[in-house]
Design brief:
The protein is α/β, with parallel strands linked by helices. It has a single domain, classed as Rossmann fold. 39% of the residues lie in helices and 16% in strands. The strands form 4 sheets. It has a 7-stranded parallel β-sheet with strand order 5-4-3-6-11-12-13, sandwiched between helices. Helix 1 crosses helix 2. The longest helix has 20 residues. It starts with 6 loop residues before the first strand and ends in a 27-residue tail after the last helix.
Length: 398
């Protein structure tokens, strides 16, 4: 099969196995090039481990700290006439790279929100690792089935209170236009919090605690984003923001639950980057394109792997987490630097379809998006036939 990118709206419906493997290899090289993470974790569970920040967290732990890693995700292998998902290929590449270095890596494919998945993972930790000493929560899903009631919740990307109108970048056409986002109605906020809030994070920690699977001193981290005021109506003050507030509520609850073990729960506020989740949020792609231009010129641009390596190396495991006034770790600090934000805001006011290439890094945005699916990686022959049937070694039965 010759696999080319097929883009529909803000998703790519194809993924290239060799390209995804190359992308994983690039991330591993970044981490290894920075040397070992001193005092890093050794037994790590990543919930939502197949793409974006979750994948990079697993890579940073495994190849920066020689950690045994377990990853939980919901991805699809190849079928007769269809390639697998990027997250499937990423996880296959990670496991193979880990095995080559003698590192334990085991994956679980299914509904991370379910009691059955929690029980399966807990049993595997008990059998293989005994306990874990780091738990990363990085799930991104549009829906969640409540494991207790069976109710299905669906998240929405909406403002709260009033409609929100602002500039937007059509990532298919490269046109800067305007978008109006309707306000939440009915149970929109409640449902979005149920999907993207902290309840499931707490359920995971409770399940692990109940089986005595959390080692003394364990740290658990969930990821968030705040961003500049121009994105607040759709993000911080929108339905997503309500869910992130709930994550912070749960962080405080988990702090108390982990205290007897000398453990700690954190919310890490990360930089705006092109991920499968962020590309779906109106307004944000234009902001990211402007931000990339500014930060690349300044020499402070980071992708997910640099962010997660810095989180592990300079915040979680060096004794200096540097929390903000709300107790959050901020690895969005370079993004939110006043000089960076002032220049982005100035260009936001000026940007149009005509000057997009001058003021923003739309090419960089598109390249980052395609790389998520294994396209545009150096050294990969995209004109050659490739076998889409790639096994994740620990999931060979699927």
């Amino acid at each position: 099969m010759i696999i080319a990118p097929k883009i529909r709206g803000f998703i790519c419906t194809t993924a290239h196995p060799e390209g995804c493997a190359a992308h994983v290899a690039e991330q591993i090289a970044v981490v290894k090039g920075r040397g070992a993470i001193a005092n890093g974790p050794k037994k790590v569970l990543v919930i939502g481990s197949s793409t974006g920040y979750g994948l990079s967290s697993r890579i940073a732990a495994a190849f920066g700290s020689n950690a045994a890693t377990m990853g939980v995700f919901f991805e699809k292998p190849a079928e007769a006439d269809r390639c697998g998902t990027a997250g499937w290929y990423n996880s296959a590449a990670l496991e193979k790279a880990a095995a080559a270095e003698g590192l334990y890596a085991r994956s679980f494919n299914g509904d991370a929100f379910s009691d059955a998945m929690k029980a399966e993972v807990c049993a595997a930790i008990k059998a293989d690792l005994g306990q874990v000493d780091c738990i990363i929560y990085s799930l991104a899903s549009p829906r969640r089935t409540d494991p207790k009631t069976g109710e299905v919740y669906k998240s929405v990307l909406k403002s709260i209170g009033q409609p929100y109108t602002n500039k937007n970048l059509n990532t298919t056409s490269g046109v800067v236009d305007e978008v109006t986002i309707p306000p939440a109605e009915g149970d929109d906020v409640k449902n979005t919090v149920a999907v993207m809030g902290g309840e499931d994070w707490e359920m995971w920690i409770d399940a692990l605690l109940a089986e005595n699977l959390i080692a003394p001193g364990t740290q658990t981290v969930a990821y968030s984003y705040i961003g500049p005021e121009l994105t607040w109506p759709i993000y911080k003050n929108g339905t997503i923001g309500a869910a992130k507030e709930d994550v912070e509520r749960v962080q405080r609850t988990l702090d108390a639950k982990l205290a007897p073990l000398g453990g700690k729960a954190w919310v890490s506020v990360n930089k705006a980057l092109v991920t499968q989740a962020s590309s779906a949020i109106p307004v944000v792609p234009l902001y990211i394109s402007l931000l990339y231009k500014v930060m690349k010129a300044e020499g402070t641009h980071e992708d997910t792997i640099e962010q997660m390596d810095r989180l592990f190396r300079e915040r979680l495991y060096n004794g200096h987490p540097q929390p903000d006034e709300a107790g959050r770790i901020r690895v969005d600090d370079w993004e939110m630097a006043p000089a960076v934000q002032a220049l982005v805001a100035e260009r936001w006011d000026k940007v149009s379809s005509e000057n997009l290439s001058e003021l923003a890094d739309f090419d960089g945005y598109q390249s980052s998006f395609l790389r998520l699916f294994g396209f545009g990686l150096a050294g990969v022959d995209y004109a050659a036939e490739t076998d889409p049937n790639v096994a994740v070694p620990s999931l060979k039965h699927e």
